[in-house]
Design a protein that fits this description.
- With 323 residues, the protein is an alpha+beta fold.
- The protein has 3 domains: 114 residues, Orthogonal Bundle (Multidrug-efflux Transporter Regulator, Chain: A, Domain 2), CATH 1.10.1660; 138 residues, no CATH class; 39 residues.
- The chain has 12 helices and 17 strands.
- Strands 6-12-13-11-15 form a 5-stranded antiparallel beta sheet.
- Helix 5 crosses helix 6.
- The longest helix has 22 residues.
- The protein is globular, with a radius of gyration of 25 Å.
């Protein structure tokens, strides 16, 4: 029976280090792949699992449990667990009887701290119930806007910056502007990137208000990064009654879309993701086989099937080109 071989990504997950760190271990001779001389043929390094586990034992487990790591990073343990399940970060899995403990190393913790400081995901519903960059209106019809969630800063029409508490005391409120949507979309979202406006009267903020009204705040995510607002929204349909000048809106959104697609007719504008869902049925044996192959290659079953289909289509296209 052959020895179980691991790819570089799987080794990084087991050891709880980055893929670049695995390459460093190879260069320094601390970890030896079985195909060091011809790794190009296999598409990457392959390691004996027993060698990796032996190295892990000698190295010793210096990871930090995700509960403690989450506090250090400033996120919830559930957030870390989702990153682990999606294989977006390396980790170690410690087993003691039936109990499993996920460990994250210091390198990963520091990297995530920097990421969340650099790209802070603004909570969609603030504890005051105000979504980020929402338009605020007082009884006199004056407008202000929440422009800094962290510092709780509001900007008025006159360009004055005041605290959120002061704005609320002056009668500013967002309630009644956006209808709460009870459904929470979990699929692939459409992404836009806008320069953060210097004034509250801006088409960018009008678009954010439009997204809030149609999709709801809980289906609209906003990230502020390097003076830009990255806006992710579920697929929606914008009607002429929602925005009078659909032609200008279509041109504007097309300039700023980063992921997804936009189509338009006379009465509606459709914002869609580029992924299509296909329902397939597998017998139990085939499903189990694909599941095992997917895990061996660091994918889930859906991702692995997609890769197989893409390879099949590319090969078929090459065969057709030769004819």
């Amino acid at each position: 029976m052959g020895k179980e071989l691991l790819k570089t990504k799987e080794v990084s997950n087991i050891l709880g280090i980055a893929i670049s760190s695995v390459h460093h271990l190879v260069r320094t001779g601390k970890l030896q792949p079985v195909n060091k001389s011809n790794w190009q043929i296999d598409g990457g390094y392959l390691f004996k699992k027993e060698d990796v586990l032996k190295f892990q034992e000698q190295k010793g487990g210096n990871g930090i449990p995700i509960t403690q790591a989450a506090r250090l990073i400033g996120v919830t343990p559930a957030t870390l667990l989702r990153l682990i399940e999606k294989k977006e970060i390396p980790y170690q899995l410690k087993k003691r009887g039936q109990r499993k403990t996920y460990l994250v190393n210091e390198e990963t913790i520091q990297r995530l701290k920097q990421r969340y400081q650099r790209r802070r995901k603004i909570n969609i519903i603030h504890k005051q119930g105000i979504p980020p960059f929402a338009k605020l209106i007082n009884d006199d019809g004056k407008i202000a806007r929440l422009v800094d969630m962290d510092q709780r800063i509001v900007m008025t029409e006159e360009g004055e910056f005041i605290s959120l508490e002061s704005a609320i005391e002056k009668g500013f409120s967002w309630k009644g502007q956006y209808v709460h949507k009870y459904s929470h979309y979990t699929g692939e979202k459409v992404q836009f990137s806008f320069v953060k406006p210097a004034f509250i009267q801006s088409l960018v903020y009008d678009v954010i208000d439009l997204f809030y009204r149609i999709a709801g705040p809980q289906n609209t995510d906003i990230i502020e990064k390097n003076g830009h607002l990255l806006v992710e929204i579920k697929p929606i349909l914008i009607r002429k009654k929602d925005f009078e000048d659909l032609d200008s809106l279509y041109v504007f959104l097309n300039k700023h879309i980063r992921k997804g697609s936009i189509s338009k007719n006379k009465q509606t504008l459709k914002i869609s993701n580029t992924h299509k869902t296909v329902l397939i049925y597998l017998n139990e044996n085939l499903h189990q086989y694909l599941k095992e192959r997917a895990m061996a290659n660091g994918y889930d079953v859906g991702e692995y099937i997609t890769c197989l289909l893409e390879d099949f289509v590319k090969n078929e296209q090459r065969q057709q080109d030769k004819k």
